[in-house]
Amino acid sequence: AQTVTQSQPEMSVQEAETVTLSCTYDTSESDYYLFWYKQPPSRQMILVIRQEAYKQQNATENRFSVNFQKAAKSFSLKISDSQLGDAAMYFCAYLSQGGSEKLVFGKGTKLTVNP
Amino acid sequence: GAGVSQSPSNKVTEKGKDVELRCDPISGHTALYWYRQSLGQGLEFLIYFQGNSAPDKSGLPSDRFSAERTGGSVSTLTIQRTQQEDSAVYLCASSLVGTGGYETQYFGPGTRLLVL
């Protein structure tokens, strides 16, 4: 079974600075998808960014980018120019290609943004 | 367009009572998922629907939990004889396809269940 590990329960960053959230995963599959979701206090899970494992190029979405290291099974999220609205829980998630459609989540990292 | 909606937003019940949680997916989304989020266990998958059938119900924690989906749209998660350990946030998500293809899962705001 696949597992996802987020080793940083909490992180903090100053407004306008850059922060990197870590995620590692364990799988024997070669094709899969990886996601970062954001969950603010409203509880709504919001997709931040996604990466297909077959793509070597790292995904980027505005201020959010990932460092995908397939061999190392690492998928970190970098947030540039942090804003107060970025404060939330961030979850890393794994999805198998084909077979089960369920997302496997890490435990989450609570990000605080200091003004 | 409208996102995934869930009702009720919060539910307080007494141990031993039955509860029903409802999920309205995004219109046209064929796949629907239920997850549970609790302090001790994090985010856990419960069940996945493709249309009205449930090819994967492996995450349902006991036979007190059941779910159905009708008309390929609304889904209801039922918990019978609730226990205190059932207290959690129940999240629903939907996606456009789920048959081995890939589509993003969009989540609702969840139902917070508290069993006294």
Structure report:
The complex is a heterodimer of chains A (about 120) and B (about 120). By secondary structure, chain A is mainly β. Helices cover about 0% and strands about 55% of the residues of chain A. In chain A, strand 10 and strand 11 form a beta hairpin. The model of chain A has no long low-confidence stretch (mean pLDDT about 95). In chain B, the strands form 2 sheets. In chain B, strands 2, 4, 5, 6, 9, 10 and 11 form a 7-stranded mixed β-sheet that branches. A 4-stranded antiparallel β-sheet of chain B has the order 1-3-8-7, with no helix packed on it. Chain B has about 120 residues and is mainly β. In chain B, a hairpin with a 3-residue loop joins strand 4 and strand 5.
Secondary-structure map with pairings?
The complex is a heterodimer of chains A (115) and B (116).
Chain A lengths: L2 E3 L4 E5 L4 E3 L2 E3 L5 E8 L6 E7 L7 E2 L2 E6 L4 E6 L8 E9 L6 E3 L3 E6 L1
Parallel strand pairs in A: 2-12
Antiparallel strand pairs in A: 1-4, 3-9, 5-6, 5-10, 7-8, 8-9, 10-11, 10-12
Chain B lengths: L4 E3 L2 E4 L5 E6 L6 E8 L3 E9 L2 E4 L8 E5 L5 E5 L8 E8 L10 E2 L3 E5 L1
Parallel strand pairs in B: 2-11
Antiparallel strand pairs in B: 1-3, 3-8, 4-5, 4-9, 5-6, 7-8, 9-10, 9-11
